[in-house]
Amino acid sequence: MKNRLALVTGASSGIGKAYAEYLASLGYDLLIVARRENLLSELAGNITEKHPGVNVDILPADLSGHEGVMKVKDKLSSGTMPDVLVNAAGFGTRGFLHEIDPELLEGQVYLMTVAAAVLTRIVLPAMIERKEGVIIHVSSVAAFISTAQYPVYSAVKVFLNSFVTGLRDELAATDIKVQSVCPGLTRTGFMYTDQYKEFDYSFVPDKYWMDPEEVVEESWKRLTKNYKPVVVTGRSNRFFVKMLSSPFIGPMFKRRISRRTRKRIKKGLPVNF
Ligand SMILES: NC(=O)c1ccc[n+]([C@@H]2O[C@H](COP(=O)([O-])OP(=O)(O)OC[C@H]3O[C@@H](n4cnc5c(N)ncnc54)[C@H](OP(=O)(O)O)[C@@H]3O)[C@@H](O)[C@H]2O)c1
Question: For residue 26, what are the domain limits?
């Protein structure tokens, strides 16, 4: 019997890679997508060595524009439609908006909103026909608070949470599970880029950090146990988000952060987020 198929974007590193490895361990065949072909090939080799019954297909594609998304569409329409979509491709832009390369920003918004919605649109009809499937988008705790240096990043994550919440209702007559998973700080390559080189991690207590494997395991478990479309991973992160969403403490905390940030910016001091 043929294995079920999972399409994982952003599989060349971090959370996407951890999903690919996890799904392979559950017996899914994989179609893995990202730009760095060498890393995809390396992952495919490692997975097939560890799970000889699993087939891994790689597709190098840049999903920050129409062409890359259509590449995935063409690949799927000439083969099998996936039973699982994990959309983990993403990157951060840290800095004041007027200083960020506009093209980078355009690609970021496309990748984390348009590509997410269109890929979902592409895989859904086959899932609806089967009345089952899993769609996971990797959002962030950043969806719950918007700060200087991250207004776009937070906004695209809000998009994902909202998108998945509405979609869940649309799919009420099926067993298709949709999830927007919101990790907090996760030990991946995400912050080891030029954009983040001045970010000082030392102010974040250890309890807020997770490994990508922990994020994935919790995300997958929450598809069945206490299912909700928006899932925050990690106890400390959940507590933080609960506090942000509480009617009294939440607005007070956000006002404090905002006031402190604006004060520092007025004085020309660095903002340490
Ligand atoms: N790490 C954290 O603290 C954290 C916290 C909350 C949420 N997240 C979210 O988790 C997701 C995954 O990030 P990560 O932490 O796993 O970081 P990561 O290790 O840098 O992985 C990002 C993945 O996205 C892929 N990607 C980036 N741009 C792409 C593009 N234009 N086209 C196709 N693929 C692209 C990268 O592959 P290529 O470079 O090979 O294309 C890589 O596989 C992101 O959406 C991020 O916002 C991360």
Answer: 5-247
Ligand 1 pocket member 82 (CB < 6 A): no
Residue 153: active-site member: yes
**Is residue 116 situated within a structural domain?**
yes
Let me know if residue 259 belongs to a domain: no
For the beta sheet containing 56-60, the strands, ordered from the edge strand earlier in sequence to the opposite edge, are: 56-60, 29-34, 5-9, 84-87, 132-138, 175-182, 230-232
CATH number of 221's domain: 3.40.50.720
Q: Which of 171, 4, 11, 178 is nearest to 88 (CA)?
A: 11
Note the pLDDT tens digit of each residue in 18-65: 999 999 999 999 999 999 999 999 999 999 999 999 999 999 999 999
* 183 C-beta closer than 6 A to ligand 1: yes
Q: What is the pTM of this model?
A: 0.96
Rounded Cα distance between 10 and 92, Å, is 13
Domain count, the chain: 1
How far is ligand 1, taken at its centre, from the CA of residue 79, in Å?
26
Residue 202, domain member (yes or no): yes
Instruction: Indicate whether 209 pLDDT > 70.
Output: yes
CB-CB neighbours of 205 under 10 Å? 9
Query: What pLDDT, in 10s, does the model give residues 103-145?
Result: 999 999 999 999 999 999 999 999 999 999 999 999 999 999 9
